[in-house]
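Entry for the shared binder. Reason: the reviewer on the internal report wants the predicted structure included alongside the sequence.
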Amino acid sequence: MDETEYQRIVETYLDDVYRTVLACCKNKENAEDAVQNAFLKLLKVKENQFRDEGHIKRWLIRVALNECKNMWKSFWNRNKVSFEVLETDPLYQDETHHELLEILDKLPQNYRTVIHLYYYEGYSVKEISMIVGISESNVQVRLKRARDKMKVLIGEE
């Protein structure tokens, strides 16, 4: 992959990949590391491996999500105690989106990921199943359960 093509891909997909991984990691630093590792892996990919632009974006998101999962599995993350509140920069400026983002953060990771990909990134159920590596019916179940949990959480506030 030549430098101009790589730069174009970074400029095109960096924000989307970062937002998706941030929703999964809930930690700005881990999300940045996961995204950086995904883009580093992109440098090692053969140039004609991707079918189209959508394939590149899905691949980057999948690799970054896997990097995030690997970080959470590490000994350090399983055994550390945080003294500071996890801070995430608000991704959306109006108050409604900010409140929804706070509720989204309360969901388990597998629900947060599918909700974010479906509503914020605009992926279809089929595309999410390819990105996350689960069946389409499992994506639909997770979306339904996440919506139900969000309704309960919204009712509590």
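Summary line for the report: The chain has a mean pLDDT of 82.
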